[in-house]
Automatic annotation (TrEMBL):
Residues 280-325 are annotated as: Disordered. It comes from the Eukaryota. Residues 298-308 have a biased composition (Low complexity). This is Cyclin N-terminal domain-containing protein. Keywords: Signal. Residues 1-19 form the signal peptide.
Amino acid sequence: MKSLRLALSLLILLESSLARPFGVVSSSRTTGMRVFGSPPSRRTSPTSIFPLRGGAIPVDEEDFHMPPQISAQDMAIALRWTGEVNRRLQEGTRYEEVSTRLVPPLHDDMRGGESAPAPSPLTLFHATSPRPNGNGSSRWGPDLEAYVENICRQLNLPPDVSAELSLALMYLDRASSAETPRSNGVPPVPYLQPRTVHRVVLAALLLAVHTTQGWPLPVLMERVESLGVRPDQLAQILQWMHGALGDPGYFIADYSIQAWRSVLAETSRLRDLLVDEEKGIPAPPLKAPTPVVETRKAATTAVAAPTTPEKDGEEDVEPQVLQKP
């Protein structure tokens, strides 16, 4: 009878723990909890995701998939490569962006008068003080590998192998994607570029550590005060990135983790292609932008596009010529 009572008590305890609302996490901080993967009862759902927070329901070994552990060097390689490719893509599309400034704003009383001007491309993620001697991301901040290692030291993460580093890459990829479902109306964070990479990766790492270890964000913000980001700006950056994660929030699906394993496996190939930033990064060939066609009859065969006034910390925009076909 005593053994039966003990068995029933254990069964009731197990059922009560599994009956917790899905996605609700404990407010207490726990470490070492296996929180990656999908609960077996929800494996058939395409949105089968597991809460990545301390206090989540543990799962069996076969149902548990940790994000791949990468080093600070691997993360820096992925950041530098992605940032440089995005920078070159933006430079290629600037041709069309400059031409759109020639079009006067529309006036329509039925729609509220003139159209609102386009918002400034500079955000809280953009660095404002360029360095006189530096190229790529080194112009806007410290060396990426040393920067990531410094963040790891401040957050007590091992810089050689850490799952939080790969989780941070997943977060910043989702937060900057226009395909992420966001019913909250928060816009995506700026794309990863040499000018934004430092603050983007800092916010992503803080959210990753907050997710896996359960530390409150104010505590983590105090640990990285030496990095020079104002606390009020860092709080807004974290709020923006958290909202930009969209409807899934901190959740990571099993299939996303498996897909990222193959993506991060390419860092070994990028390490062979990556060279010193002072010599440039051999980005893959990009398709030339399509020339903008001038349709006005009074236009000449070649119209010089005016340059925009230089903003603080931005490079000059060379005048470009719009050719008629």
